[in-house]
Amino acid sequence: MPQGKLKVKTKLPPSAKRKANKQKKGPAIQRRGNAPIQPKNAKFKEVHKLKKVITKTVNNAIEDELRERALEGKKSLTKKDEQIKQKT
Which residue intervals are annotated with compositional bias (Basic residues) in the record (predicted)? Predict the structure, then answer.
């Protein structure tokens, strides 16, 4: 609990001068109007696309290699291959 008197805010006398219009400062960094600003995550999206393409190509290469090895043992991994061989 406060034990002293409350402070009373005083008003300035009318003879006291106040600061006139303050000048507003411009932005710290001025940018060109026609300069494109890319979002921050554009770089990350590009890297993600490259990684995705690389994984797809590696997976396709591995799959083709496995299919070749399986066909050497006369085993087909798909039913379509069997149907084509029977027709010819």
Answer: 1-25
Distances (CA, A) of 65 to 52, 54, 60, 68, 72: 20, 17, 9, 5, 11
DSSP class per residue in 5-51? PPP-PPPPPTTSPPP-PPPPP--SS---TT-----TTHHHHHHHHHH
* pLDDT tens-place string over residues 8-57: 878 877 777 666 556 677 777 777 777 777 777 888 899 999 999 999 99
Q: pTM of this prediction?
A: 0.39
Q: Which residue has the higher pLDDT, 68 or 79?
A: 68
| Residues 77, 70 contacting (CB under 8 angstroms) | yes
d(CA 62, CA 65) in angstroms, rounded, equals: 5
